[in-house]
């Protein structure tokens, strides 16, 4: 009887412990994100992150890990839009892209997804880029992420190719490189942060540019009819 009660208590408290661990992990990642973006990776210490998150230094290590692990998790969760990393093939927008029937629909879904994720990813990604210049572990992470981005774009190009609607004079590598260059955080920063574009403007231009660069004119969407001018 004693063992049953003990086991029951353990089962009752387990979800609460897991929930608290998730809250602590989120607080640590939020604090790390703020500090990495505000003052840079090199200038940020684990002690500062702990103070910002209102936890002990050992809790930072237990919840996520050392500084490189913190930055890696920030990149991964920014990409997934969740509190934990999600493999690219299992992300919601990727599944919707693969289910779409036309190349224009696939491009529209992806342009919207890029616009949404860059709002959380771009500052973290640029912090990683800067950290990679002086930190060996961050340099390795930067290279791995860059290669993974390129590989994912080749998969996207191959998926577009299945519609039979891509320009025949473009190779899959050319398609992938075109998309890869324009979905980069640097492109977002140039237009949204430096030139003052709204996210909506950015997303619309991304969709329009990809459709017009990658598809022949007969697959371009019809322009919206102009509304009559009231006199």
Descriptors:
231 residues; mainly alpha; Arc Repressor Mutant, subunit A; 2 domains; 0% strand; disordered N terminus
Can you describe what's shown?
- By secondary structure, the protein is mostly helical.
- The chain folds into two domains: 1-65, Arc Repressor Mutant, subunit A, CATH 1.10.10.60; 67-219, Tetracycline Repressor, domain 2.
- It is 73% helix and 0% strand.
- It is built from ten helices and no strands.
- The protein has helices spanning 2-39, 46-53, 57-63, 67-80, 92-99, 103-132, 136-161, 172-182, 185-194, 199-214.
- Helix 4 (67-80) packs antiparallel against helix 6, helix 5 (92-99) runs antiparallel to helix 6 (103-132) and helix 6 (103-132) packs antiparallel against helix 7 (136-161).
- It is elongated, with a radius of gyration of 22 Å.
- The N and C termini lie far apart (86 Å).
- Mean pLDDT is 88; it is low at 1-6.
